[in-house]
Specification:
9 helices, alpha/beta, 12% strand, single chain, five-stranded parallel beta sheet
Length: 220
């Protein structure tokens, strides 16, 4: 084991979370690019998706915005979790075993925030489902890109809106944000909260600094 408590040779698992419009995709990509530029083997993926099965689930979960169909909260949580289970087995664990910096835009905490705090499902029950879906895989660090609800929703172009922006009101998104902050407060050693209301370059610097506490090579 290393001094940080992870198995020798295992990579680092970093997740990027946050409410809609917080810039998760951009910041995850920039972190990945920075790692590659500094010679750190890195793997970038997203949820839902990242595998053949996961991308089919993504089409169901996000494509429903253009229809009148509704997905129940429980079905929602299970579909996200099914995609996650496949990603863990097919992509995340193999990447970690190769010693890579594995970056995932969204992971299990998003289900707790959206389907739990946001849609009202029991967070403890969802936690048990996540432990099963991930086979106990927990991020070494979770970056929470936090910003006010109104700003996040205003950032989304109409063409990029998914069913969570189209079908759910401000109160839902506030519950999601509050849920993320509650999760971060309950496990401060795993979470780093970054103010995502600022310029993307400033956000990137804070993200890089947070990850560099685990992977100093990123600032080399």
């Amino acid at each position: 084991m290393t001094s940080e408590g992870r198995p020798t040779g295992r990579g680092w698992f970093i997740t990027v979370e946050g409410p809609d419009g917080s810039g998760k995709t951009l910041q995850a990509r920039r972190l990945h690019e920075a790692a590659i530029a500094h010679g750190v083997p890195s793997l970038l993926t997203r949820e839902p998706g990242g595998t053949w099965a996961g991308e089919r689930v993504r089409e169901i979960l996000l494509g429903v915005a253009s229809t009148n169909e509704r997905i129940s909260p429980r079905a929602d949580a299970l579909l996200f979790s099914a995609s996650r289970a496949q990603l863990v087995e097919e992509v995340l664990r193999p990447g970690l075993e190769r010693g890579e910096l594995v970056i995932d835009a969204r992971h299990a905490d998003s289900t707790l925030a959206y389907q739990g705090f946001g849609r009202g499902l029991d967070v403890d029950e969802l936690g048990a489902i996540q432990r099963f879906a991930t086979a106990g895989l927990v991020p070494d660090l979770t970056i929470l890109l936090d910003l006010p609800v109104e700003l996040g929703l205003a950032r989304k172009a109409a063409a990029d809106e998914n069913r969570f922006e189209i079908g759910f009101g401000r109160e839902f998104h506030q519950r999601v944000r509050d849920g993320y902050l509650a999760l971060a407060s309950g496990e401060p050693s795993r979470w780093a909260v970054v103010d995502a209301a600022r310029d993307p370059d400033a956000v990137h610097r804070d993200v890089l600094a947070s990850v560099a506490r685990l992977v100093p090579e990123l600032l080399g």
